[in-house]
Amino acid sequence: MSSRHWFAAVVTLFAAASATAQTVVLTASAWTPPLTTMAYTQTKWCEAVAAATGNRVRCNVLPKAVAAPPATFDAVRDGLADLSYSAHGYTPGRFVLTTIAELPFAGDSPVATAVAYQRIFERYLAKFDEHRGLKVITVFTHGPGNLLNIRRPVASLADLQGLKFRVGGGMVNEIAKSLGMNATVKPATESYELLSSGVMDGVLFPSESVESFKLEKLIKHRTTFPGGLYNTSFALVMNEKTWNRIGKADQAAIEKLSGEHAARLFGRSWEEADRRGVAFMQANGIVTTKADRQLIDEVKARTSHLERKWIADAKAKGLTNAEEVLRAFKAEVARLQ
After folding, report:
1. Quick check: helix, strand or coil at residue 2?
2. What is the pTM of this model?
3. 159 in Cβ contact with 291 (< 8 Å)
4. Which of 39, 82, 246, 261 has CA 20 to 30 A from 10's CA?
5. DSSP secondary structure letter of residue 159
6. Tell me, what's the pLDDT at 209?
């Protein structure tokens, strides 16, 4: 090899090594307080990424969110932040396939529902690119959704009359309408103000949220359903251009921490937070009513059309085997619980 060719080869190898070792600092945005489940788990994921990449890829968590929850996906896509999470239901009509994870009675374990959802997403749904412009790190769910209110026990659908509820949008809004509830779509972060001002009488939330959003002085009653009255679909996403700046070796390391691994991480965090949340509600005198068979059957009858609607909407998006996919999701949850 001539000296000129040798020098060119060395330069090429040096450039490749430099690209692989390039440091990328991810600007991470969180719209829930730092110790709430999603913000905390995003930080834990960032710490794992830093460790796996020799600190070449690490996060700078901003002290304040770059956008309101409904605008978060667009904020990441447009480069206002490199990394964040949000609920698909906060932008109605934009995400269709993701509502598979939000149907009533999905599952009692957030680990099971999150991991099952990620598997189904990866196998069947990701190719439809509903997250266009974003690198999806993982999709996940929270724990089973409860009905919480400040007025009275809810043991029947008749008890809902005259009460106003905050809901998060997406499938939970459709469930509320199907049950005849007076529901308004608002982000979770507005719950305290809505309840304390009397604008709303209740919220639909998983068990951890009373403590997370400091609602213990307001909420008096909780109604639970086996598998949850609803669930919520979330995604942790990264800006695509930022992802492409990360070296191939570090991308490979991050991929190992993404997908099912990250879904399980979020699921475990929700499970632990829900366990603490139940104890917290008990300690604060919040009375729990377990839905009886009559109420469960009535809810199922009122909401059974929502599965058919998801199947029809999914087929309209091009998912021709939507019934099979829904059965596969339920089977995955059952296997994992």
Report:
1. coil
2. 0.90
3. no
4. 246
5. G
6. 94
User: Could you tell me which residues come within 8 angstroms of residue 265 by beta carbon, excluding any fewer than 6 positions away?
Assistant: 41, 44, 45
Strand order across the 221-224 sheet: 182-185, 164-167, 202-205, 146-149, 221-224, 287-290
| E strand or H helix that includes residue 297 | helix 293-303
Give the per-residue pLDDT at 92: 86
Neighbours of 151 (CB within 10 A): 13
In a 3-state reduction of DSSP, which class is residue 200? coil
Q: Which of 206, 254, 203 is nearest to 56 (CA)?
A: 254
First to last CA, the chain: 62
- For 177, residues 6+ apart whose C-beta sits below 8 A from its C-beta are 183
Phi and psi angles of residue 134, each rounded to the nearest 5 degrees, phi first: -125, 145
Buried residues in 279-288 as b, exposed as e (16+ CB within 10 A): ebbeeeebee
Please, what's the b/e burial string for 157-194 (b: 16 or more CB within 10 A of its CB; e: otherwise)? eebbeebbbbbbbbbbbbbbebbebebbbbbbebbeeb
CA dist 263 → 105, 114, 204, 306 (Å): 19, 6, 22, 25
Helix (H, G, I), strand (E, B) or coil at 275: helix
**Average pLDDT for the chain:** 93
What token pair was written down for 289?
A: 């009513």
